[in-house]
Design a protein that fits this description.
Blueprint: H1 23-53, H2 61-74, H3 77-84, H4 92-111, H5 116-119, H6 122-145, H7 152-158, H8 162-184, H9 189-221, H10 223-229
GO biological process, one term: fatty acid elongation
Keywords: Endoplasmic reticulum, Fatty acid biosynthesis, Fatty acid metabolism, Lipid biosynthesis, Lipid metabolism, Lyase, Membrane, Transmembrane, Transmembrane helix
Membrane topology: Multi-pass membrane protein
Length: about 230
């Protein structure tokens, strides 16, 4: 599912006067966000290059970016520890669930089932592109906020692009899980039913996340925000 968790220092949260931000933590988070931005940008560039070089043959995308996608996404496990140890203000539970849902796709679906029905299906490519664009915007947004730079166009992108990227990303994830169902029985019947349950969770989960982002958009880009900027 799409990620909305923050990677900005926890000291900035709350209505009270903020405590001084630990410069070491701040430097680490800046480096983490830019490294993540670079990783996702690389996957996006390689995906687009592959599609252009093959005339849009999405069946070739996994062979080029599959391993890179797995490790870039796995690196997001650090975000759970960022929340756990109070480096950022995101709730641990929410962060863990969002990261786990992505890891299910890259490890529990694409890596576990090295089959064309999963890896070479069009949904893998649309999922990858949606993830990459979302994460490039998200990590650049967080990195710049850490140095008190928040370009208005980047804020607009973060709270507007989700209208298209969330349905594409979440829909592609659900389709990838569905594509793996015929092969899940070979692992264990319980895993098959677990994946079926995950597919059933997607519609309400998507609704919650989507409406949350719409509310966030009103908060950051609504009329009241526009008046303050005038």
């Amino acid at each position: 599912m799409p990620k909305t968790t923050s990677q900005t220092p926890a000291a900035n949260s709350g209505k009270k006067a903020p405590k001084p931000v630990n410069p070491v933590v701040n430097a680490y988070l800046i480096a983490y966000n830019w490294a993540s931005f670079a990783g996702w940008s690389w996957v996006l560039v390689q995906t687009i290059r592959t599609l252009l070089a093959t005339g849009g043959d999405y069946t070739k995308v996994y062979s080029v970016v599959g391993d890179q996608l797995v490790w870039v996404q796995t690196a997001a496990l650090l975000e759970v520890f960022h929340s756990l140890f109070g480096l950022v203000k995101s709730p641990v539970g929410t962060t863990a669930m969002q990261v786990a849902s992505r890891l299910l796709l890259v490890w529990g679906i694409c890596t576990l089932f090295p089959l064309p029905e999963v890896r070479s299906y069009w949904a893998f490519t649309t999922m990858t592109i949606a993830w990459c664009i979302t994460e490039c915007i998200r990590y650049a947004y967080y990195a710049l906020n850490l140095v008190n730079m928040g370009p208005s166009f980047l804020v607009w992108c973060r709270y507007t692009f989700f209208y298209i990227l969330y349905p594409i990303g979440a829909g592609s994830e659900a389709i990838e899980i569905y594509q793996s169902l015929p092969f899940a029985h070979t692992i264990h019947p319980a895993y098959y039913y677990f994946l079926v349950a995950m597919i059933c969770i997607y519609p309400p989960g998507f609704f919650v996340m989507y409406t949350h982002m719409i509310a966030q958009r009103k908060r950051y880009l609504g009329p009241s925000k526009a008046k303050k900027s005038q």
